[in-house]
Design goal:
Layout lengths: L1 H7 L20 H24 L9 H26 L8 H11 L6 H37 L6 H25 L16 H8 L5 H6 L5 H19 L3 H13 L1 H14 L1 H6 L1
Length: 278
């Protein structure tokens, strides 16, 4: 995926990355050090939150911790090289990591408060959703592999369950890849995070551990469905602030499956057979 995005689609050339394909300046070691320190401080803060909250000590999250322990050394080794590469090409190299690093090293108070705010909110989103999505992915993948190991049977119920697992696995796989590879070079960095408390509440209510508590009380299921609807409304409101998303919606409205079906239906009604049926 990364190879396709960078080599074929050349995502690093998009203006939305805040990034140039060619270096804009010589390597500035001091700023790279600040950014690496800011990144490590961010990870340490997230780890501290995980350690403090009892929720993340459950066996449910064991696959996530196992994977994290395996990849963390490689991540720490690769970070300085990636940061140096990006720093030379950023149109605005004084990002949130640089400001956090400056605060740690010299006590310099961050000047771009909104940038820091988005940085914190973005990591809250990743810190909350990545463990869940990864565990869901591992669980669903296990169910799929178990199903494939069983002898073939023409059982519609079994194949229906298998299809649901497969679709859900693709869904959470996309989520995991998206949260892991929030990189400017892929134009997959977080642009903005839901700014309202209400939007956060209706979103978090759809996931562990809140949903698990709700499902224990069937009377709350109707309210839970309403929460999902509210979540969709708040997400659409937030995404509609992005011009790229608005352009995408306009394109789908003109060229998507629903638009195609409408055109086919209109053509059928105008045809002689359609008029005779009326």
């Amino acid at each position: 995926m990364i190879a396709v995005d960078t080599a074929y689609f050349q995502t690093f050339r998009r203006r939305s990355t805040g990034f140039q394909a060619e270096p804009l300046r010589a390597l500035e070691v001091e700023r790279v050090v600040r950014k690496v320190i800011g990144f490590i401080v961010t990870l340490t803060t997230v780890a501290a939150v995980y350690w403090i909250l009892p929720e993340y000590r459950r066996a449910f999250y064991a696959p996530y911790w196992a994977a994290l322990y395996d990849i963390l050394p490689a991540l720490l080794v690769a970070t300085p090289f990636y940061v140096a590469y990006v720093d030379c090409r950023q149109t605005n190299p004084e990002d949130s990591y640089a400001e956090i690093g400056a605060f740690v090293l010299s006590g310099a108070v961050p000047q771009r408060t909104e940038q820091i705010r988005q940085h914190v909110l973005g990591w809250i989103v990743k810190g909350f959703f990545l463990p869940l999505m990864f565990v869901y992915l591992c669980s669903t993948l296990g169910s799929i592999l178990t199903g494939l190991e069983q002898p073939y049977q023409l059982d519609i119920t079994r194949w229906h369950a298998f299809a649901i697992d497969l679709l859900f696995m693709v869904d959470v796989l996309i989520a995991v890849v998206g949260y892991v590879f929030t990189l400017r070079v892929l134009d997959n960095h977080i642009r903005t995070v839901e700014p309202t408390v209400f939007g956060w509440l209706v979103c978090l209510a759809c996931y562990e551990p809140i949903t698990a508590e709700a499902l224990r009380h069937s009377a709350i299921l109707l309210g839970l469905n309403a929460v999902y609807a509210l979540r969709a409304i708040t997400e659409e409101r937030h995404l509609s602030r992005d011009p790229d998303y608005v352009a995408y919606c306009d394109y789908i409205a003109e060229n998507g499956a629903v638009a195609l079906l409408k055109r086919l239906f209109a053509t059928a009604r105008r045809s002689p057979m359609g008029r005779s049926a009326e």
